[in-house]
Every structure is written in structure tokens, then in C-alpha cells.
Amino acid sequence: MSEYTQLERSVIEQAHQRGESAVERARQRLVTEYEDQLQEHKEQLTQKYQSKRSTLRNELEQEIQQLQNKRSVLALEAKQNVLTELYEAAVQRMNHWDREEQLTFLYKVLEKYRGNDFSLKFGEFTQQHLTEGDIQALKEQFPEMTLVNETFARQGGFVVSLDRIDYNYLYSRLVELSKEDMNLKIVQRIFEKE
Hints:
It is a single chain. By secondary structure, this protein is of the alpha+beta class. Helix content is 74%, strand content 9%. The protein contains five helices and four strands, in the order H-H-E-H-H-E-E-E-H. The protein has a four-stranded mixed beta sheet. A hairpin with a 2-residue loop joins strand 3 (158-162) and strand 4 (165-168).
């Protein structure tokens, strides 16, 4: 073989090796770029997944909270309805006390006003239970009392007026005051729990 042929083969072989080396470097660079892009794409997908998952979790937690709030409101409304029915029943029960119960309550309250000039006005239901003898006995027991002839329509109980101040003992008002006090205690207990 001639020197020329050997030189030619050597140049071709070097060119071939350089070509293969360049191809290998290009392949490595492409593989690295591909792997980097793949990793970047995975990270983007992971971020999107985490973001979507977080958003869905927040939405779910909000819906759960709304349902819990709604349940609490419905439970409170149900309790309020039960309490309202109980209070209405209490007023009805008091309105229909028998004569003795009406007189016992009346005397107990009027004892507080003994010695003062006061007027007394009955609720319609209470006056219906009292006899003329009961009224006469009241006048004798409390001579400083002035009995008002009118009544509070469709009410039980009475109102004592002393020094232009009305002291309301109508059963509906007494129960309403009790209800307001009870509602305040319920609200306080609810906030204590929270």
C-alpha cells in the first residue's frame, strides 16, 4: 500500500471518528435536552396537579363548612321552633289556670305593692276566672288599689300601675321575658363552645 492510500485511510478514519464523536456528542446533547424537557414537563404537570388538588381541596372544605353551617342553622331553627311551641304552650297553660292558681299568683304579686296607691287592670282570661266575691276580697285586702273596669283583650294576667309606671304581669309578656333570657343563655353557651 502506498503512503498515499494509508494517509487517505488515516484521514478517512479520523474523519469517521470525528463524525462518530460529533454524532455521539449531538446524541448526548439531544438526550440531555430531552431528559431536561421531560423533567421540566413532569415538574409542570406535578405543579398543575398540586395546584388543582389544592383548589379542589379548598372548594371541598368550603362546601363542607357551608353544609355544617347550614346544618347548624337548621338545627337552631328546629330548636327555636320547639322553644316557641313550648313558650306558646306555657302562655296557654297560664291563661287557663284555674281560679285558685290565678288568685295565688295575683295575691303573691300584689303583696309587693301593699301600702302604695296602685291601679290593677286584668287580662280578659284572668278576669273570666274570678268571681264577684274574689274581686270584693281583693278590694278589702288591698284598700289602696283601684280596679280598672277594662281588660286586656285575649290576655291572661294583669298590669299594676304605680306612679305612672306599668308593671306588666300579663302571662304572654312574662313568658316572653323568660324566652329572651333563655335565648341569651343559649347564645352564650353556643359562643362558649366555639
